[in-house]
Amino acid sequence: MISKRAQINLVTGADVQRFVEGLNSDGSVDRYVLEDYNGRNRVSARSYLGALYASMEFKGEIFVVNETHDGVFPPIVDAFRI
Predict the structure, then answer these.
(1) Nearest to residue 54, comparing CAs of 15, 2, 28, 1?
(2) What residue segments make up the domains of the chain, in order of their start?
(3) pTM
């Protein structure tokens, strides 16, 4: 099954921190992951270290996936959406 995903841009450490804090304060228990273009590399979107790794290694091809409710994204995603 192919998940719906949103492409985001995390450039600075401050971007990463703001994104992770916003995601962790959304009030949901949904499981979010960040993945690269082809979906082979995945990290927890709620993890600062995971998001920082994605910002450095996924070469500008970062996608958010909601594994609990496919296609549902919190408002913070819109702030970083490409």
Answers:
(1) 15
(2) 5-80
(3) 0.91
